[in-house]
Amino acid sequence: MRGPGWRALLAAVISLLAVGRAEAAGFALREQSTSAQGNAFAGATSGAEDPSYMFFNPAALGRLDGFAAEVQGAHLSPHSKLKSSSATTAAGTPITGPDSANDIANDNWIGAGYLMLPVGDRVRLGLGVTSPFGLQTTYSDDWVGRYDAQESKLETVNLNPTVAVRVTNWLSVGAGFQAQHAYGKLTQAVDFGTIGAGLGLPVTPGGDDGGARLSGDSWGYGYDLGVLVEPVKGTRFGLAYRSEIDNQLEGDASFSDDPAGVAAGVRAATGAFSNTNGKVDVKTPAILSFGVHQDLGERFAVMAEAQWTQWSSFDELKVKFDNSAQPDNVTKENWHDSWFFALGATWRPLDQLTLRTGVAFDQSPTTDRYRTPRIPDGDRYWLSFGLDWKPVQWASLDLGYSHIWVDDTKVDLNGTESSPPGGSLKAKYESSIDVATVGLTLHY
C-alpha cells in the first residue's frame, strides 16, 4: 500500500470518533471489532483474526504477521420506550407532565481504529483507538420524572498502545497502556416550588421549575494484560484483564431560573443554586475475560467466551460543587458485578469468504431497587451474524449485524436513593438494540 492510502484510513478513524456519540442500554460498548461481533464476541479473547482483537486481548497481536491497519464503524440503533411513569415531589405532591415516550434513545455511530507494526520475528507493536464506554438517554423537559433525569450523556475515547511478544510458537503475551478521555453531561429539572415551600415562600410544589446542567471532561489511565496459548494446533485459550479507570470529570454546573422568579428567592435565602464549577467521579470497571477457540478441520471452527465485569465499582453517582452552599448531589447506584457468556461458529466455504454467527447472554449490573431513569438497563440476549470478504491479498472487508433483546425493566424509586432526598418515581421500559458494523483491514 502507498502512503496516501494509509493516511486516508487514519483520517476515517478520526472522523468516526469525532462524530460518534456512544449510546447503549448500559454504558459498556462491545462494538470494537466487526469480525468478533459476527460471533457475538464468542472467542474474542482467544481469537487473533485481525488487529481489532487486541482490544479484547493484547496478546492476540503475537499471532499476527506483517504491517496492518484497520478501521471499524458501528451504527447503533437502540430502542428504549418509556411505557408508563408516575412521580411525586419530595413533599408528596403528584407531578404533572407526559408519562410516556416513544423513544428515549437516538441512533448513533461509534468508530474504532487499529495499527500493528512488527519488530523482528517475535515482537509486535500496536495502537488501538476506541470508544469502549458510553451512553445517551434523553427525555422531554416536562416529563413526570424530570427532577430525576432529562439528558444523560457519557462519551469516551481510549488510546491503547500495546506490545505483544510471541514467546514460543504456542505462547504469546501482551500488555498495553490505556489513556482514556471522558466527556459527560447531566441535566435535570429543579423543583424550586418544593424547595421554596420548605423555606416558607408562597409557592406550589411542582409548579415552579428551573433547571440544572453539569458538563465536564477528564483524562484517566489504566492498563491491560493478556496471554494466548495454543497447546495443541487448532486449540487456543486466551485470558485477558483490563483495569478499572477512574474518570474525575470536572467542568461547569449551571442553574436556570423558573419563570416566576422563585429561584432568586431560594438563592438569596440559601446561597445555593448559583453557577459554579463541579465534578463527578465515573469509574469504568475492571474486566476479566476467558476465551476458547477450536478448529474443526480447515474450514470450520467453534468458540466460546466468558467475561466478568466489576460493575460493583459503580456504587454511586456523586456530583460535588465548588459552591460550599450547594450540597453534594448523590444518587445510589449499587450496581453488582456481572457476567457475559457467548457461543459462536465460523465457516470458511471459500478461501476469500468467511461466515460467522453467535449467540450471547449479557447480564445487567442494575437492580430493580436502585435502577434509575438515566440508565434503565436490563439483561440482554444477542444473536449475531457476520462475513469477511478478501477480494485481494492485501485487503479484507468485514460486515456484522446483531439484534439484542433487552428484558423489560422498571424504575421504582422512593426518594431515599438520593441525597438530598427526592420524590418518588415509578416507570416501565421496553427496549431492544440493533447494531450494524463495517470494517476494513489493509495489510502486507
What does this structure look like?
This protein has 444 residues and is mainly beta. Helices cover 9% and strands 55% of the residues. The protein has one domain: Beta Barrel (Porin), CATH 2.40.160.60. It is built from 4 helices and 20 strands. It has a 14-stranded antiparallel beta barrel. It is elongated, with a radius of gyration of 24 Å.
Structure summary:
The protein is mainly beta.
Largest sheet: 14 strands, antiparallel, barrel
Side-by-side strand order of the widest sheet: 1-2-3-5-6-7-8-11-12-15-16-17-18-20
Name given to the CATH architecture: Beta Barrel
Unreliably modeled segments: 1-25
Number of helices: 4
Distance between the termini: 8 Å
- Rg from C-alpha positions? 24 Å
Q: What would the keywords be for this entry?
A:
Porin; mainly beta; 444 residues; 14-stranded antiparallel barrel; 4 helices; disordered N terminus
